[in-house]
Amino acid sequence: MNRKLLILTQFIFWGTLYADYSVENAFPEFTFTNPVGIESAGDGSNLLFIIEQPGRIYTFENDPYTSERYIFLDIRDIVNDNQNEEGLLGLTFHPNYSENGYFYVNYTDYSPKRNVIARYTVNSENPHEADESTALIILEVNQPYWNHNGGQMGFGPDGYLYIIFGDGGSAGDPQGNGQNLQTLLASLLRIDMDNPSNGLNYGIPPDNPFINDSNARDEIYAYGLRNMWRFSWDPVTNWLWGSDVGQNAWEEIDIIYPGLNYGWNTMEGNHCYSPPTGCDQTGLELPIWEYELYVEGDCSITGGYVYRGSQYFSLSGKYIYGDYCSGRIWALEYDGESPAQNEELLDTELYISSFGLDQNNEILLCGLGTGKIYRFTSDEPGGLGDVSQDGATDVLDIIQSINLILGSTPSPYQAWSADINMDGLIDILDIVLLINLILDS
């Protein structure tokens, strides 16, 4: 019987966590100065890139035993990090990085106070070193105050570059940028890096939502965002998840759609902000989740990722995020229909400045106070390919996978573990990949 088995792990969540999680120092040999970002280049190199807020990027092999790292880029002489929300804040790599060597940084500078988006090229003869002479300014946005600079960038599944800027800073959005479509502040931008036009170093995607609105900037994808500190795409659903830092009462998590207004500063989370009661919520997109500030030490949300790694079944499909001050980390379940469900994953003593992914979609996180990079550990048994859940990948797992293809009903764990390529199907390709896993082990 040669039929494919549809797997529902992308859309069905399997209830409460059943494992105990902790974090461990992922790279004991290394300490960083104010690490605020972890990126991989998507080129199969297994290199990690760590962003230091003062203006430096390190790279090294994603190996816990490595002791050798390299300075990939050092632009501390042009980065201004006088205040705690300034500095080198973002890094992303072009989808064709392996061919063109392009990567992009987002940093703050003064005179005038502004965010700078710049493109650099890797040294063609040394993958551990950027060519600083290739700097090309893509976009600059003036900032009236030192705080709320956003900083995240990323190429979406559509190949366009997304950039977030905060609302301009101070407190309460005194300039009204949140609801102003004629400024790039308080908005998520979407630009085309491969087709520059109109004398700019970028182009405007033809389906950007405000491209035909004379009262709006063409670059804007979504707006009404106070200071979204990290956004990411789920590679299965392609949903864009964003975590927006609140003013003084509520932190929120949003699914970002084109053209929508996420409410700041009319709203803070699900609550009126200006005015404090009776605000007009017409046309506003409310968050899928919020949590209250200054409870158990929480003070500022740090956005993360929907887990699509191969080690932890109980995290699969859940959005992993944390709080900068309390060090708490949660797993949020959301299917687009039922109300979101949130569980505390663990309580750390870390100042969590950022999460990141390695090339295998395993989650890492930055400890700003310690200068260390951490990874999850768990007592959860099994893993991708260990269909029998006996701690090994072997012939028994091949037999069980074949039985699933032939019609056996999988348990939720088997449905996840046997789908090696995570395409929603258990088929002969998964058997081939499973054999390769066994041969490589």
Structural commentary:
With 441 residues, the protein is mainly β. The chain has 2 domains: 1-18 and 382-441, Type 1 dockerin domain, CATH 1.10.1330.10; 19-378, Neuraminidase (6 Propeller), CATH 2.120.10.30. Helix content is 8%, strand content 34%. The protein has helices spanning 97-100, 395-406, 412-417, 428-440; strands spanning 5-6, 21-25, 35-40, 47-52, 56-61, 70-74, 88-93, 102-109, 114-122, 130-142, 153-155, 161-164, 187-191, 220-223, 228-233, 240-244, 250-256, 267-268, 271-272, 289-292, 301-306, 319-323, 328-333, 341-347, 352-357, 363-367, 372-378, 425-426. The strands form 8 sheets. A 4-stranded antiparallel beta sheet has the order 2-27-26-25, with no helix packed on it. The longest helix is centred in the last third of the chain and has 13 residues, at 428-440. It is globular and about 65 Å long. The model is unreliable at 1-15 (pLDDT under 50).
List unreliable stretches of 5+ residues.
1-15
Tally of helical segments? 4
Principal-axes geometry comes out as: globular
Counting helices, strands and paired strands, the structural category is: mainly beta
Intertermini distance: 30 Å
Report the average pLDDT across residues.
Answer: 94
Spatial strand arrangement across the major sheet: 2-27-26-25
Percentage of residues assigned to helices: under 10%
The domain tally reads: 2
Total strand segments: 28
The percent range for strand residues is 25-35%
At CATH level 3, the topology of the largest domain is Neuraminidase
Q: Just give the CATH class of the largest domain.
A: Mainly Beta
CATH superfamily name of the largest domain? TolB, C-terminal domain
For the biggest sheet, the summary is: 4 strands, antiparallel
Oligomer: single chain
CATH hierarchy: architecture of the largest domain: 6 Propeller
Radius of gyration: 22 Å
